[in-house]
Amino acid sequence: MRDLAITKRDIARELARKYSTMTHEELDVLESIIVPMKFAKGEKILREGQICKDILYIEEGLVRQYYLKKGRELTEHMGTEGGIIMCIESLFREEPTRLEVEALEPTYIYALPKHKLESIALHNVNIQILYRKILEESLILSQVHADLVRFETALDRYKRMCKIMPQVTLRAPLIYIASYLQMTPETLSRVRAAQLNEERSK
Fold first, then answer.
1. Distance from C-alpha of 185 to C-alpha of 160, rounded to nearest angstrom
2. Bridging pattern class, strands 63-69 and 72-79
3. What are phi and psi of 21, to 5 degrees?
């Protein structure tokens, strides 16, 4: 259950702990631009055709980023507590996104508006470091996903996802996990059974 006493200051501290040390003054500045947002299960956070203007920090909940191809929903990324969600191309080109972002659970998000973040980063070195590290993390996650589906077997893909995204594998519907790993739900069921057999035989 979410702690209702959580404040924007708490989120600023969480971000500082994760990405960059900050002075009290820098925490004040970061706190001033944070925008709290709440979404119900199934609610769209961003729709195809909208422009992504914010970096989204998940304080509580489960979020899916996906796109439509030939009428099928293809999952590109999922995130839980402490994760970051953004449509990076739309964010930097300021063009409509082809992606959709939705809450898979009741979700609390704190948005960092890109233009405000860039503005305060100009005058605050540690906020500049935070901004850079968030972008680095997002790019690395994209590369990890690309490498998963390019180089790993179906079983190894699932094992690696369990290791790097344990909460997602526990909480997300199997159909979305299968889509993220670029396999059918039937293949995922076989993979999960194979992993279970491996664990039992140890």
1. 17
2. antiparallel
3. -70, 150
Q: pLDDT digit string (tens) for 112-159?
A: 999 999 999 999 999 999 999 999 999 888 888 888 778 888 888 999
> Rounded to two decimals, what is the model's pTM?
0.89
Nearest to 79 by CA among 104, 48, 54: 104
- Give residue-wise pLDDT tens across range 48-82: 999 999 999 999 999 999 999 988 999 999 999 99
Cβ count within 10 A of residue 39: 19
Judge residue 172's burial from the number of C-beta atoms within 10 Å of its C-beta, 0-12 exposed, 13-18 middle, 19 or more buried.
buried
52, 90 contact by CB (below 8 A): yes
Cα–Cα distance between 126 and 144 in angstroms, integer? Answer: 27
* CB-based contact 87:48 (threshold 8 Å): no
What is the 3-state secondary structure of 40-95?
Answer: CCCCEEECCCCECCEEEEEEECCEEEEEEECCEEEEEEEECCCCEECCHHHHHHCC
Report the DSSP beta bridge partners of residue 51. 96
H helical segments located in the chain = 8-19, 24-33, 88-93, 114-121, 125-151, 154-164, 166-171, 174-180, 185-201
CA atoms of 160 and 144, how far apart (whole Å):
10
